[in-house]
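Quick review question:
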């Protein structure tokens, strides 16, 4: 029995060491030092601080806000333009479909075309007659003339 108690004590001690090792917290890492302040920082310490760097920072913030507003407006307009394009395409297809129904109701042939700008139907213009072929040019020999000689000069 002493032996069993001894083993239990050793086992409990080993188990305690294992649990202690698992639960032990690792030492906290050393805090990283803050980077040195940049000489180019324009941040203000408070709203009342109106030093030159603060005023410059405010100007940049105003321009940044304006750029964000413009970007948002552009995105909204872009989405609206896409929706308008889809709507236009749909309405134009509806117009073409209605024109096809009217052509069918009036029993007009496939040659009749519809102009969506003027809302008119028309047949294609009759083909212009082909121009008469031009006669082939005939080659006549050039007339030969006797060569003229310069008059002789007298000394």
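Suggested answer, residue by residue:
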């Amino acid at each position: 029995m002493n032996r069993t108690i001894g083993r239990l004590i050793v086992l409990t001690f080993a188990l305690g060491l294992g649990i202690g090792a698992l639960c032990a917290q690792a030492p906290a890492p050393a805090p990283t030092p803050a980077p040195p302040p940049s000489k180019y920082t324009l941040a203000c310490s408070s709203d009342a601080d109106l030093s030159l760097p603060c005023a410059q920072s405010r100007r940049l913030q105003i321009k940044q806000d304006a750029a964000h507003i413009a970007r948002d407006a552009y995105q909204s307009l872009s989405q609206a333009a896409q929706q308008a394009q889809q709507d236009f395409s749909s309405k134009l297809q509806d117009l073409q479909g209605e024109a096809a129904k009217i052509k069918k109701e009036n029993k007009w042939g496939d040659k009749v075309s519809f102009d969506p700008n003027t809302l008119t139907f028309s047949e294609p213009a009759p083909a212009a007659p082909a121009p008469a072929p031009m006669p082939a040019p005939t080659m006549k020999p050039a007339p030969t003339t006797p060569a003229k000689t310069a008059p002789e000069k007298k000394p």
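Why it works: The longest helix spans residues 52-105. Residues 138 and 150 are 35 Å apart (CA to CA).
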